[in-house]
Amino acid sequence: MAMAPARRSTSFLWALPVLLMSWYCYGMLKQLFGVGCGYTSRTICSGVFISNRTASCVVENDMQLLARTLFRYHVDFDQQTVHSSTLFGFPSCATRYHNQYTGCAGIVNTSSYESSYKPVFDAFSKELGKQLPQSPAVALPTRTNQAIQKAVDAEFTTSAYDHSHTRALVVVHEGHIVAEGYATRHMGITRNTGHIGFSMAKGVLAILLGMRIRQGVLRLHGIVYRNYTLAQLLNMADILPVSETYSELSDIPNMLYNQESVLSFAESASSRAPRGADHFYYNSALSNILSHVLRQTFPTIEEYWRFPRQQLFDVIGAESIVMDTDQTGLFMTSSFAYATAVDWSRLGLLLVQRGVWNGVRLVDEDYVDFMTQRTEASADVYGGQIWCVPTKPVADGTPVDVQRSRMSTEHLLLASPPLDTCFMSGFNGQYVYMSPSLDLVVTRLGQTKGMVPDSDQDVHAPWQPTWNVTHFLGAVFDAVRHSST
Q1: Verdict on whether the full-model pTM lies above 0.85
Q2: Is 373 helix (H, G, I), strand (E, B) or coil?
Q3: Does residue 20 register a pLDDT over 80?
Q4: Integer CA distances (angstroms), 96 to 36, 81, 193, 253, 413, in order
Q5: How, if at all, do strands 92-99 and 103-107 pair?
Q6: pLDDT exceeds 90 at position 115
Q7: For the segment 405-422, what is each residue's pLDDT rounded down to a tens digit?
Q8: What per-residue string of b and e applies to 351-386 under the rule 16 or more CB within 10 Å gives b?
Q9: Strands, E, within 165-294: which ranges?
């Protein structure tokens, strides 16, 4: 009789690891399926309701094979909502398109969305419906450069498209569109098709914050979050314990597709130990913190929602730009902005023109200088939410992750770019290259894997992106220089 409790105790000790492992596996599967549902519904929702593509086209050409295999979806056109779930029906989530000002919002918690957020979104959309329609934007003038157009056309031959999946190319020189091309023959992409920019949204965010500085609401070197300045956040100071990794079970997909509030996630994650504000760490969560900083400059969320369109997009004629929010209404400025290739080019042109559009200054010139000023901590490749062509060698002791970030820009040196070249960059090969000295903007949009080094890439080994960007940009730079002589 005395041995029975001991046997029960031993049995419990054996069962404890099994229970803990089961709980751990459940947590991983819950996150995996949650990310997959959110990714499916958001990708299709933005593709259908923002880019005006068919759901089948989005699924076939934009979504990863795992998501196409494991998840199902339903498009509700009446409610402008996409519902998604696993093949077993659980878990499930939705993404709803609200309006052109706030784009699509992922609905992770249906109860809180219905009670707290939906009424605000709906009231705002209703108010927008009372507005008079805007007059059409003035088109950028066209002046074809045959040499550049030839280089653009070469990217849309069948063999080139099958390799690189370039969807749109626009080259703007001296304020004129000198060449453009689209994957119309391959997948119906036209000049009017909106494209996701992924991390190019960070550049949009930086411009918006610069406008608030010019309006006297923010100071570049003022404290804006905890004990950190706006400049530190824009320069990607290493202050957040969020890991910039992209596998289905890592921080960034979890933040983007599986969270009610990206701000709460950024403030509560604990995946890594940050090195401190004097160090550089490219971190998408920090850009969503900056979106919160922007939000705090407005007394109401409706004014925050109106600001990008009314004071930037409409002013520069970029009427196609749409920015997504999370469920709480915060712009997800780390990753989700959509625009036609021409309108992405307008944003680049604003920076090339030193913050001035049609004679009206929107952003201070010294702030544009800040955005394009390379920081030593980033190994000479990052400024204020945009990338730069390096001009200095890598310093001894530079962390491996920083060296790997530099690799994604260093190959551009083979194209002999002007040293003032900087660019917005997004996942799978979204780029807006800018050179003020050449008065040049080059926008490239596509769906090309292998455009940045893998997380295990040897920083001492040769590396080239999948799309031969150096060949294309080299041809453009040469043609522009030749036309200027």
Answers
A1: yes
A2: coil
A3: no
A4: 16, 4, 20, 19, 42
A5: antiparallel
A6: yes
A7: 898 888 899 899 999 999
A8: bbbbbebeeeebbbeebbebbbebbebbbbbbbbbb
A9: 166-173, 176-182, 195-196, 223-225, 228-229, 237-238, 276-280
